């Protein structure tokens, strides 16, 4: 518990647990976090559209197993494919922000 002494923000906790920004450990954590967020957004949007993974795959020229892997945070996804899934398959626009 000593390593948590003096921590007052979430950013400080992340740094203690995963290292400073730019380290391999932190990069891996950030990548997994972003994939989790994308997977949850995809699941929510698909359920809101009231379509199955199979229907979404058909609309976007992918496979059900690929949609499932993305929704479970298990696969890498190209930006062009992500855009196609959200825009063609779910009628949603994607906005990107670079920090």
Automatic annotation (TrEMBL):
Coiled coil: none annotated. It comes from the Bacteria. GO terms for molecular function: DNA binding; DNA-binding transcription factor activity. Pfam families: HTH_3 (PF01381). Residues 42-85 form the HTH cro/C1-type domain. InterPro entries: Cro/C1-type_HTH, Lambda_DNA-bd_dom_sf, TransReg_Diox_bact_type. The keyword Acyltransferase does not apply. SUPFAM superfamilies: lambda repressor-like DNA-binding domains (SSF47413). Keywords: DNA-binding. This is XRE family transcriptional regulator. It comes from Flavobacterium cellulosilyticum. The lineage of its organism: Bacteria, Pseudomonadati, Bacteroidota, Flavobacteriia, Flavobacteriales.
């Amino acid at each position: 518990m000593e390593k948590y002494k003096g921590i007052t923000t979430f950013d400080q906790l992340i740094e203690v647990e995963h290292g400073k920004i730019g380290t391999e450990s932190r990069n891996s954590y950030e990548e997994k976090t972003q994939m989790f967020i994308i997977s949850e957004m995809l699941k929510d949007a698909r359920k809101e559209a009231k379509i199955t993974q199979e229907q979404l795959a058909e609309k976007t020229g992918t496979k059900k197993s690929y949609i499932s892997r993305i929704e479970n945070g298990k696969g890498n996804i190209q930006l062009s494919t992500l855009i196609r899934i959200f825009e063609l398959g779910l009628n949603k626009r994607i906005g990107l922000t670079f920090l």
